[in-house]
Amino acid sequence: MEDQSLLSEETISNKIYFIRGQKVMLDRDLALLYGVETRILKQAVKRNISRFPEDFMFELNKSEFENWKSQIVISNSEKMGLRHIPAAFTEHGVLMLSSILKSDKAIQTNIQIMRIFTKVRQMLLDTTEIKVNILQIQKKLENHDKNIELVFSYLDELTEKKEDENERVKIGYKK
């Protein structure tokens, strides 16, 4: 295993998109990472299509494709090369690719991609946990606000009662 051939986390992370509520990688990006042509990757998938159900791989629809093209910065010459709508591979689909692409580079790249997907999943879990904690703190603060308002209303009632009370006749011994 050569460390020189390892891709940076940023390189892989930048190729993970959020489409249809899922983290996916597109066929052209995967082919680039694996060091094969996109058509070779697509041929391998077509030969093994039973390994790629809809929740592992899907083709982008026209609006998703246009949205994706508008989000990435690509030159006009690259846009000319985008004749085919790309296939999107979910985490499981990328994992399945490792069983049909047998090159050492593909295997090593797949391992790295799986590690990145795991990190992304963990980051999402961590942010979800943080959101839950923030909501709990907000609820406590709302309760504190309500309690403080209640205390002030009781204080207002007490001061109003004192003001309303007439001077009482003092009972007791006079000097």
Structure, described:
The chain has about 180 residues and is an alpha+beta fold. The protein has a domain of about 120 residues. About 60% of the residues lie in helices and about 10% in strands. Strands 1-2-4-3 form a 4-stranded antiparallel beta sheet. Strand 1 and strand 2 form a beta hairpin. The longest helix is centred in the last third of the chain and has 61 residues. It starts with 8 loop residues before the first helix and ends in an 11-residue tail after the last helix. The N terminus is likely disordered.
Keyphrases for this structure?
4-stranded antiparallel β-sheet, 175 residues, KilA-N DNA-binding domain-containing protein, alpha+beta, KilA-N_DNA-bd_domain, 7 helices
Number of strands: 4
Catalogue the unreliable spans: 1-5
Helix/strand structural class: alpha+beta
Shape category: rod-shaped
Could you state the order of secondary-structure elements as H and E? HEEHHEHHEHH
> Helicity range of the residues?
55-70%
Q: Strand order, main sheet: write it out.
A: 1-2-4-3
**Biggest sheet statistics:** 4 strands, antiparallel
N→C terminal distance: 105 Å
Query: Averaging pLDDT over every residue, what do you get?
Result: 79
- Helices, by number, come to 7
Radius of gyration: 32 Å
Strand proportion, as a percent range, falls in 5-15%
